[in-house]
Design brief:
It is a single chain. By secondary structure, the protein is of the alpha/beta class. Helix content is 42%, strand content 15%. It has two domains: 187 residues, Rossmann fold (3-Layer(aba) Sandwich), CATH 3.40.50.720; 183 residues, 3-Layer(aba) Sandwich (Rossmann fold), CATH 3.40.50.720. The strands form four sheets. It has a six-stranded parallel β-sheet, sandwiched between helices. Strands 13-14-12-11-15-16 form a six-stranded mixed β-sheet, sandwiched between helices. A two-stranded antiparallel ribbon has the order 5-6.
């Protein structure tokens, strides 16, 4: 079976690799350098399992910038293009997805289109009406950056919004590529699948926000946050997981998905969803003030990436801390080995760790690192458990 995958980011590439174990996959991307890297079996993003599979596994995978080549003869077309949140319209920007839908319907009207990009509730129903076809499905992703292929190999569940034979067929393909056959397949309506994605990520954001606000209280009152969190988590209904304080929930998914869900509540009464969005802003305000209270002349930001094993820092929470500190006139420098430019939004990028440590009065790190042990007296972090 031929399958086309559009987009070679975390979602697209992990799905392409997964499916290419058993089927012919042609992956389409506008970035010629990324396409060339995949064809050389080099992973263009930081992900240990994807690097291993590309280098060592016999995958039937070809990457291309030629849309006609990708779409021709494909049974399924998996769409994994970016849907950034547009703060003006209070909606995901779905233009790239809509463009792909139109192109596929013209080039290969027999193909079943599976959207993996995150979309608003009701999007598939609107697209089905617009393109006069039921062969458009939505299958949400539940991936961690840096572990995207792992999470596809060992899925917590496989959800496909379609409630039809085509949805079952695609779900079977995902399970076939997985390293385990224990994941439950859940077939829903398209809008229900869209809601699953947004509510799942908003729940995770809520949990992050809860433990961050607990930590803010402890910090403000001089209490031991770790002791409180440990004891709270001993309740089995709460658990000792996903409870490590941070600078706020960030990354590509949680901020935009929470705001999109809030927008979907425009005519439905709610309090909690808005509070989750607001809590993230409040946390950054609080921590920025705590850093400024140390009266630093220079604040060093250690790593822009969200977590270890990732090279992605889109909307990382520390950027919000940076903006608040710089707004008060304090100089900020950055140590980020994965960033190739000499400055990041007006802040100097220092590529020498020794000079970085010496130059900063306070070093801000979302997560601990062994290489900061010698500057523990300068370090500001809320990482209590050493986990992501």
């Amino acid at each position: 079976m031929k399958i086309a995958v559009v987009g070679l980011g975390y979602v697209g590439l992990s799905n392409a690799v997964l499916l290419a174990q058993h089927h012919r996959v042609v992956a389409l991307d506008v970035d010629a350098l990324r396409v060339a890297a995949v064809n050389r079996r080099e992973c263009p993003i930081e992900d240990a399992e994807m690097q291993q599979f590309l280098a060592q596994k016999p995958l039937d995978l070809q990457a291309t910038t030629d849309a006609a080549l990708a779409y021709r003869g494909a049974r399924f077309v998996v769409v994994a293009t970016p849907t950034n949140y547009d703060s003006v319209t209070n909606q995901f920007d779905t233009r790239t997805v809509e463009q792909v839908l139109g192109d596929v319907r013209q080039a290969n009207p027999q193909a079943v289109i599976v959207i993996k990009s995150t979309i608003p509730v009701g999007f598939v129903d609107r697209m089905r009406q617009r393109f006069q076809t039921d062969a458009i499905l939505f299958s949400p992703e539940f991936l961690r950056e840096g572990r995207a292929l792992y999470d596809n190999l060992y899925p917590s569940r496989i959800v496909v919004g379609g409630s039809c034979a085509q949805a079952q067929e695609f779900a079977t393909l995902l399970r076939q590529g997985a390293a385990t056959d224990t994941a439950e397949i859940v077939l829903t309506g398209p809008a229900e699948a869209e809601a699953v994605k947004l509510f799942a990520n908003t729940y995770l954001a809520m949990r992050v926000a809860f433990f961050n606000e607990l930590d803010s209280y402890a910090l403000a009152r001089g209490l031991d946050s770790r002791q409180i969190i440990n004891a709270v988590g001993l309740d089995p209904r709460i658990g000792q997981h996903y409870n490590n304080p941070s600078f706020g929930y960030g990354g590509y998914c949680l901020p935009k998905d929470t705001r999109q869900l809030l927008a979907n509540y425009s005519d439905v009464p709610q309090n909690l969803i808005a509070a989750i969005v607001d809590a993230n802003r409040t946390r950054k305000d609080f921590l920025a003030e705590a850093i400024l209270a140390k009266a630093p002349n220079v604040v060093g930001v250690y790593r822009l990436v969200m977590k270890s094993g990732s090279d992605n820092f889109r909307q990382s929470s520390v950027q919000g801390i940076m903006k608040r500190i710089k707004a008060k006139g304090v100089r900020v420098i950055v140590y980020e080995p994965s960033y190739p430019e000499p400055s990041f939004f007006g802040s100097e990028v220092v590529d020498d760790l020794t000079r970085f440590k010496a130059s900063a009065d306070v070093i801000v790190a979302n997560r601990h690192a062994a290489e900061l042990a010698d500057v523990a007296g300068k370090l500001f972090t809320r990482d209590l458990f050493g986990t992501d």
